[in-house]
Write a structure and sequence with these properties.
By secondary structure, the chain is an alpha/beta fold. It has a single domain, classed as Rossmann fold (3-Layer(aba) Sandwich). Helix content is about 35%, strand content about 20%. The protein has 7 helices and 6 strands, in the order H-E-H-E-H-E-H-E-H-E-H-E-H. A 6-stranded parallel sheet has the order 3-2-1-4-5-6, with helices on both faces. Helix 3 links the parallel strand 2 and strand 3. The chain starts with a helix and ends with a helix.
Amino acid sequence: MSDSLDANYAKAYGGKAGFGTSPALLMIDFVEAYFDPDCDLYADVDDALQSALRVREAAHKVGIPVILTNVVYQDGGLDGGRFFEKVRPLRNFLRGNPMGDWPRGLTPTENELVISKQYPSAFFSTSLASTLTAMGVDNVILTGLTTSGCVRASCVDSMSHGFITTVVRDACGDRHSEPHEANLFDMQAKYADVVSEEEIIAHLNVL
């Protein structure tokens, strides 16, 4: 096939989801494990966190809901199922392990909701979808870690639950640029609009 990747995908994909009128910001799994060089989950994603914090500040200024997720397992990982069996570094998220703590610069405020999960998607077996629906949210803005894992899984589920979904490129991170870029490309093609930090802040500022 002689088409470029972009040209090939443009034949089938390339539609725009747009923005909704009642957004919420979702900050996925910004926890210490991804920022500690001694942890096997370390991903060198400080830039993504700083971007997400700026988006969070803009969200607070206009009063939209901000929801954070983390991953917490019972002793032995009993509630982690096959995911916990497959991915050995998830042991860093056993209850009480400091690798599951919030990193420097990120402390949930009293008006932010924290949802603890055991699987990649922030929606799977959590109250997130019903909570967003009860809030009247129609647009989920995604930031978080990692792009190829929990961000992508949450993106697909967000769209599947009927939410217009927006992924903030600068505010997502992964342990390597190739899966990061590949998954941003795929989410943009099929499930969401991928936008820059500048674009989403400009949008929030006119709500």
